[in-house]
Design goal:
Blueprint: E1 2-7, H1 11-22, E2 28-33, H2 36-45, E3 50-54, H3 62-72, E4 78-82, H4 85-97, H5 100-108, E5 111-115, H6 120-133, H7 144-154, E6 158-163, E7 169-175, E8 178-184, E9 187-188, H8 189-197, E10 203-208, H9 224-242
Parallel strand pairs: 1-2, 1-3, 3-4, 4-5
Antiparallel strand pairs: 6-7, 6-10, 7-8, 8-9
Helix pairs in contact: 1-6, 2-3, 4-7, 8-9
Length: 243
């Protein structure tokens, strides 16, 4: 029997999701958590096949939880719930405007977005689809592209630590969702951001920073979306030259 973890601090929303998933044709084991910290403890001690998480929660929010799952549980599919319908619409418009290579990367990360109030039937169908797809073994956790998009959507002020699979560690700094600076090896600013955004399967960790204490000068003027597109173009050119 497959297991679904629901991380949601609103008891009414949590109960509605529980009731819907209990009606699924294939029975699943349901586990609940009231915040991200509690959910992370469960993920570290139990096998979970699908994570459903709200983004706005106490103690540890959904974005920090997704950062941990990206680093520790790369094959875990996720359903992300947000109360910011306007920002989600902006996200969807941005995805449509991206180059095919970036769109494909976002699609392959296999996470779904729902805004409150959401259609419980649609969420149930998405859960069934993601649980069914886990048999293929091809699912990954949230991608670098998807994670950066979430930071913009939620307007986070934070430091993102990125460790490359081939070695080397870099950092990106965000102020209220805007990419301000990046460092990677001997590179800084936009050059470092392009290198980091072009990495394949990096390890991502996330540390939130209070807006009032953020003191990193903003050296990057290009939007994260434009940098994602450029990183995808450079990556595709490199693959073409290898052929």
């Amino acid at each position: 029997m497959k297991s679904v973890l629901i991380a949601e601090d609103d008891a009414m929303v949590r109960d509605a999701i529980l009731a819907a998933l209990k009606r699924m044709p294939d029975k699943v084991r349901l586990i609940t958590a009231a915040n991200g910290a509690e959910a992370l403890e469960i993920l570290r001690r139990e096998t979970v096949d699908l994570l459903i998480t709200d983004l706005q929660m106490p103690e540890m929010d959904g974005l920090a939880l997704l950062a941990h799952t990206a680093a520790e549980l790369r094959d875990l599919p996720c359903i992300v719930i947000t109360g910011y319908a306007r920002n989600l619409h902006q996200f969807q418009l941005m995805v449509k405007a991206l180059e095919p290579a970036v769109q494909k990367a976002l699609e392959e990360s296999k996470f779904r977005f729902f805004t409150k109030p959401f259609d419980i039937k649609a969420l149930m169908e998405a859960a069934a689809g993601l649980l069914g797809n886990t048999k293929t073994g091809l699912l990954r956790g949230i991608s670098m592209e998807g994670f950066i998009q979430l930071l913009e959507i939620e307007g986070k002020t934070c430091r993102v630590d990125i460790t490359a699979a081939c070695g080397g560690r870099g950092m990106m700094f965000f102020y209220q969702g805007k990419l301000c600076d990046a460092q990677f090896r001997d590179r800084h600013g936009e050059e470092a951001a392009l290198a980091l955004l072009g990495l394949s399967d990096p390890e991502i960790t996330f540390q939130e920073i209070d807006d009032k204490t953020f003191d990193i000068p903003c050296s990057i003027k290009t939007s994260a979306i434009a940098l994602l597109m450029e990183a995808a173009r450079i990556r595709d050119e490199g693959r073409g030259n290898e052929r």
